[in-house]
Structures are given as structure tokens and as C-alpha cells.
Amino acid sequence: MGFGRVFFFIFGFALLEVLVLAQVAGTIGWPITILATVITALLGSYLFRRQGLDTWVRLNQRMQQGEMPGQEMVEGMMLLLGGALLITPGFITDTVGFALLLPASRRWIANKVIQKGSLQSFTTVKGAGFAYTRTHYTNGGSNPFQQRPTSNDDRTITGGDTIEGESHRTDQ
Q1: Per-residue pLDDT at 123
Q2: Which string of DSSP letters, residue by residue, matches 138-149?
Q3: DSSP-based three-state secondary structure for 131
Q4: At 123, is the secondary structure helix, strand, or coil?
Q5: CA 111, CA 125: separation in Å to the nearest integer?
């Protein structure tokens, strides 16, 4: 997506948000509209903290069990986005933010994202900086983070020479 499209998307979204705020304020009045905006920001902050802690606990449990916490990672990103949207004033962003923060809708959306099978990730390589990769999974819509069974034969090293020794560096 080019800069022009991003600019017009952000501008159009902000304009739509202002129009919705003005429409709501015209119906119920500006003081109640401002109060509702502040209340949704406070409620969103509370939900973000609570749901974020629950997701963090589940993520740690899955990692301690040796499983890939893919669902929890996706939900964590959704919590971050939902919290940011709820703090942003406006009723459209509040609606999307609540959808990302409430557990039932967040899990449903996270499952759809995972089933789509297109995940983007950042990785680090020793001796290098961050590397951006886009990975496409073509496994029929199954979960790419799913734990796959392994046999002991996969861990057996066959053949090859083992070289053992010491190394000393001498500066000349």
C-alpha cells in the first residue's frame, strides 16, 4: 500500500470519526458525548490490563509446556491494538477496540487470522540486525502453530565425525 493510499485512508477515517462524534453529540449533547468518550477510554484501559495479564499467563504456561503459543501471540497483538484504539477518542475506534479486547470476539478473530495462514514476523540472526520475513502457510487452513508429533528418529544423528580439541590464539 503506497503512501498516498495510507494518507487518504487515515484522513478519511479521521473525518468519518469526527462526523460520527458530531452526529452523536447533536443527538445526545456534547457534554454526554465527551463523558462517554472518557468512560470508554477508562473502561478500555481496565480491560486492556486485565485481559493482557490473562493472555500473558496463558502464553507463559504454553511456553513452559514446550508448545508454541501462537494463539496467545496473536491475541497479545490484538490486545495491544484494541487498547490503543480504545484510548483514541471516537466511537468507531471504540467499537473495534472493544471487539479486540473482549475474549470471545478476540479469540474468534485470532482464529480467523491464524487460519488465513499468512503471518508476518520479525526475526533476529546472531551478528545481524532485525530481518523482516513474510511467511505463507499452505496447509489447508490449519493452525501453523499447532504442535506436530515428532518421533525419536528425528533427533538421532547418524554418521559424521566429531572433532574435539582446544584452540589458542597467539598474537604476533
Answers
A1: 47
A2: -STT--TTPPPP
A3: strand
A4: strand
A5: 29
Delimit the domains of the chain by residue range.
3-117
Q: How far is CA 24 from the centre of its chain?
A: 31
| Helix locations, the chain, DSSP H | 3-28, 30-64, 70-87, 91-101, 103-116
Q: Tens of pLDDT along 126-162?
A: 555 555 455 544 444 555 555 555 555 455 555 666 6
Is residue 145 classed exposed, middle or buried when 0-12, 13-18 and 19+ CB atoms within 10 A define those classes? middle
Q: What residues have CB less than 8 Å from 96, skipping those under 6 apart? A: 82, 85
Cα–Cα distance, 87 to 97 (Å, whole number): 9
**What is the spatial distance between Cα 58 and Cα 87, in angstroms, rounded to a whole number?**
25
Cell numbers representing residue 56 in the block: 500473558
